[in-house]
């Protein structure tokens, strides 16, 4: 399938072809958008094709590689892949991937909607390989500038392995920022050789050869924390694993049918049009579908393991509940945790070989990339970006080029699915449609008053 580089007839800027879209980051969100654009291009013909490029700092496609734990399953249905909800006939559905891999019947025989995370990563990589011509891997976007009259932006990037190289400028009519999430550490805690975020679990645990204490600590109470505790307990049968959290135990995620409607594409429309107080109520009501909650089957497994170890008199899986982490002290050869019980008892320390911070992520702010242009982005009364329903950032009239965002940065306007996979397919179609409508608007000349309109002015967007 055509990857979207439509050079023929492309508008030129300063002797360079102008892109219709440059995307920052190439995770699942922008990958879904690349697929939507490629499928539009394949069906629309060269004259109406969108010219696109994506910049990705990784040297190849990868999605949460550090948490591709054996046996860990997705928490979202395979039908919420990169294409099905937009076009069930797409060649980029998860079912099409299984068919090409010769595993469709075998997958069906499992009688599950939830593939393993490893298999879904294989699906994403399969999609990314087909979009390879659109992506410039190993490049870091570091600035965006407005060189002309506001219709064209320039995205500046350099090779990740050569930050002193001369910057390349890509002119574009539209920018889509899908920079994803950044790992969050508790205040005062810095990453180090023995202090990891769960994002780095797989590569870091393999490098840990010196283990004087035979003990790990996992801080956090969400799905990633529970999976990390289970993984370390299984991977290091000679070690104690201490789960540290401030509540009594892991809370179950609500995966019931009615609660799951918060992830429906229609729910984005409802959320976007709701008053601010209703938005906040919906987030509060349904936070237990996604935040700081754990799959009930995993909770039961961990509890059962802990209980069986108590019976055997050899407890390796310990739950330090109602406990607060007050400090982390990385030392030569180990790490010391300073802990404080919340319901009585004296503060104490725990010496470990490593501590894993399963403490979540924070959305990357696209305004950091925009630099001075960030001042042209409109905000609400709380300093958050104002974002239209089609995911475009509202700006002053100085910028007529489009700036679109994907990810958690739009959660306050578009709801809980903004940082999740659930509506990626639909959202990619919405942004693709917005780009086509914008191009159509620029292609139609203004007819002078009293003049007869040309017969060929009608432009439709697929």
What is the topology?
Blueprint: E1 12-13, E2 16-17, E3 21-24, H1 28-44, E4 52-56, H2 94-101, H3 104-108, H4 117-130, E5 135-137, E6 139-145, E7 153-159, E8 168-172, E9 174-177, E10 181-183, E11 195-197, H5 201-206, E12 215-219, H6 223-235, E13 240-244, H7 265-273, H8 276-286, H9 296-312, E14 317-320, E15 323-331, E16 334-341, E17 348-352, E18 354-357, E19 361-363, H10 366-370, E20 402-405, H11 411-414, H12 424-443
Parallel strand pairs: 3-4, 3-9, 4-5, 9-20, 11-18, 12-13, 12-18, 13-14
Antiparallel strand pairs: 1-2, 6-7, 7-8, 10-19, 15-16, 16-17
Short description:
This protein is of the alpha/beta class.
- Helical proportion? 25-40%
- Percentage of residues in strands: 15-25%
What structural class do you assign from the helix and strand content? alpha/beta
Distance between the termini: 18 Å
Estimated radius of gyration:
25 Å
The outline comes out as: globular
Number of helices: 12
Sheet with the most strands, sense and barrel status = 5 strands, parallel
DSSP strand count:
20
Reading side by side through the largest sheet, how are the strands ordered?
Answer: 5-4-3-9-20
Mean pLDDT: 91
Report the uncertain regions.
2-10, 444-462
């Amino acid at each position: 399938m055509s990857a979207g580089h439509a050079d023929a007839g492309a508008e030129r800027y300063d002797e360079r072809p102008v892109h219709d879209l440059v995307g920052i980051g190439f995770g699942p969100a922008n990958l879904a958008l690349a697929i939507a654009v490629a499928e539009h291009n394949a069906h629309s013909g060269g004259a109406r094709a969108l010219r696109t490029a994506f910049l990705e700092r990784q040297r190849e496609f990868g999605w949460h590689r550090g948490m591709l734990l054996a046996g860990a399953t997705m928490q979202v249905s395979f039908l919420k892949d990169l294409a099905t909800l937009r076009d069930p006939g797409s060649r980029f559905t998860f079912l099409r991937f299984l068919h090409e891999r010769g595993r469709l019947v075998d997958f069906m025989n499992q009688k599950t909607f939830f593939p393993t995370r490893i298999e879904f990563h294989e699906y994403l990589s399969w999609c990314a390989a087909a979009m390879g011509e659109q992506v410039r891997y190993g490049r870091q976007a570091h600035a965006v500038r407005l060189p002309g009259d506001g219709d064209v932006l320039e995205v500046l990037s350099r090779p990740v392995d050569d930050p002193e190289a001369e910057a390349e400028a890509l002119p574009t009519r539209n920018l889509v920022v899908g920079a994803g999430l950044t790992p969050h550490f508790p205040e005062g805690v810095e990453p180090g050789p023995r202090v990891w975020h769960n994002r780095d679990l797989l590569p870091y645990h393999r490098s840990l050869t010196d283990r004087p204490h035979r003990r790990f600590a996992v801080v956090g109470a969400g799905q990633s924390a529970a999976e990390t505790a289970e993984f370390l307990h299984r991977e290091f049968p000679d070690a104690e694993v201490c789960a540290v959290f401030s509540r009594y135990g892991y809370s179950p995620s609500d995966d019931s049918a009615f609660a799951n409607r918060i992830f429906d594409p229609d729910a984005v429309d409802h959320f976007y049009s709701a008053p601010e107080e209703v938005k906040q109520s919906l987030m509060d009501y349904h936070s237990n579908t996604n935040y700081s909650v754990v799959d009930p089957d995993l909770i039961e497994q961990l509890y059962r393991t802990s209980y069986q170890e108590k019976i055997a008199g050899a407890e390796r899986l310990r739950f330090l509940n109602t406990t607060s982490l007050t400090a982390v002290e990385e030392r030569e050869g180990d790490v010391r945790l300073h802990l404080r019980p919340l319901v009585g008892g004296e503060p104490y320390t725990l010496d470990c070989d490593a501590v894993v911070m399963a403490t979540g992520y924070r959305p990357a702010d696209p305004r950091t990339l925009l630099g001075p242009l960030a001042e042209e982005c409109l905000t609400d009364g709380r300093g958050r970006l104002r974002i239209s329903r089609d995911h475009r950032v509202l700006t002053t009239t100085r910028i007529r080029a489009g700036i679109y965002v994907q990810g958690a940065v739009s959660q306050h306007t578009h709801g809980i699915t903004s940082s999740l996979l659930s509506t990626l397919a639909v959202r990619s179609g919405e942004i693709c449609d917005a780009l086509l409508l914008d191009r159509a608007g620029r292609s139609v000349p203004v007819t002078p008053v009293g003049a007869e309109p040309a017969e060929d002015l009608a432009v439709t967007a697929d």
